[in-house]
Amino acid sequence: MTAHASPSTPGSEATGFGWRILVGALGGIAGGLVFGAMMATMGMLPMLAGMVGSTSPWVGFGVHMMISVFFGSVFTVVASRWLRTWGVGLLSSMLYGIVLWVVGPLVVMPMMMGGPLLTVDAGSMMSLMGHVVYALVLGAVAVPMLRRRS
User: Distances from the Cα of 150 to the Cαs of 26, 37, 96, 145, 146, in angstroms?
Assistant: First the structure.
């Protein structure tokens, strides 16, 4: 007779690495759609498209969604222990959004596009708001999914 892991056994598929990636991808899609809508209304999608040599807002949206899914999955894999309660989960998510804002639009994008690093102005403050909203939506999707399976 062989032993099988129950759905709540640590390391099983229900709580393991693959589940956390899926949860993060779904949360990243949800947060990415909300943040993407915000960026579309502010005319920011062509700037994202510039990262891949395009000016199309649709290309920018595609780039944004790929980034959103990737960073959603990274977050739920790395931070899943903090995503088991609403308070700590949403606080962790908000802090993650701030980190993404500093690393992405304040450092990586300017490096890729030849702009000044760590420029904080009205536009970057709107970007901060968008990154925090993205991360809070990500957390709001991840917390109940991870709680249900823990």
Answer: 18, 32, 22, 9, 6
Q: Where are the alpha helices (DSSP H) in 42-121?
A: 45-49, 57-79, 86-103, 109-113
Give the number of other CB atoms < 10 A from CB of residue 15: 18
Tens of pLDDT, residues 87-144: 999 999 999 999 999 999 999 989 988 889 999 999 999 999 999 999 999 999 999 9
Q: Return d(Cα 60, Cα 111) in angstroms, integer.
A: 18
- The pTM of this model reads 0.88
